[in-house]
Amino acid sequence: DAGVIQSPRHEVTEMGQEVTLRCKPISGHNSLFWYRQTMMRGLELLIYFNNNVPIDDSGMPEDRFSAKMPNASFSTLKIQPSEPRDSAVYFCASSISLQGTDTQYFGPGTRLTVL
Amino acid sequence: SQKIEQNSEALNIQEGKTATLTCNYTNYSPAYLQWYRQDPGRGPVFLLLIRENEKEKRKERLKVTFDTTLKQSLFHITASQPADSATYLCALSDSSYKLIFGSGTRLLVRP
Fold first, then answer.
1. B43 and A101: CB-CB below 8 Å?
2. Which of A9, A48, B16, B73 has a CA between 20 and 30 Å from the CA of residue A63?
3. Residue B52 region, left (φ>0) first, then alpha (ψ -120 to 50), else beta?
């Protein structure tokens, strides 16, 4: 298996632009997680899905952030409009289910820079 | 509020020694605790999971302890190697299945 796939790996954009990050989870995994990592705040959970349904989006910082999972093999995280403070590494992770013992498999991340 | 603390200072040790990393938490009653490894420019990789009713878990050169009274987990790497150099993250989960991560401790193993 190729593991969790994220694109793009790097994104540089200007403030006010729309940014879309993409994720393909591991085939057969039913749960998908979006995280953001910064030096100041560490790794923060933004939102997670189970069977394509959003379960908890309490970590989404603002209405500028939205996430979708139209099918089991694809998810997007969108920021509109982007701001410099959104600069971070965004990780997508997937797991077989939402059991507390399930391992989360992380993608390589997307490094976002908003100028 | 819930808080997970890992030593923010890097741990610098000599090859062959045992590395011990600490994870402390407050205002939290986790059912599970996990340890992940993260290399620069990569996503975290799962290493070990320990349940609240387990005191110790081992995997090859790795050992994790979980003390719910002290609200602390210790992560040990025995016979450390330069290839063990990375950032190690602890993560807690309760019945909601959300993982809350610590900020990580960077380990540097000198040859």
1. no
2. A9
3. alpha
Whether A25 shows a pLDDT value over 90: the answer reads yes
**pLDDT at residue B1 greater than cutoff 80:** no
Q: Determine contact, residues A27/A39, Cβ cutoff 8 Å.
A: no
Which residues neighbour B109 within 8 Å (Cβ) at sequence distance 6 or greater? B13, B14, B15, B19, B80, B81, B82, B83, B84, B85
- Show the tokens assigned to B90: 């602890």
Do the chains contact at A100 and B94, CB–CB below 8 Å?
Answer: yes
Q: What is the pLDDT of residue A100?
A: 75
Task: Give the closest-approach CA distance of A35 to chain B in angstroms.
Answer: 10
Q: Is the pLDDT of residue A61 over 80?
A: yes
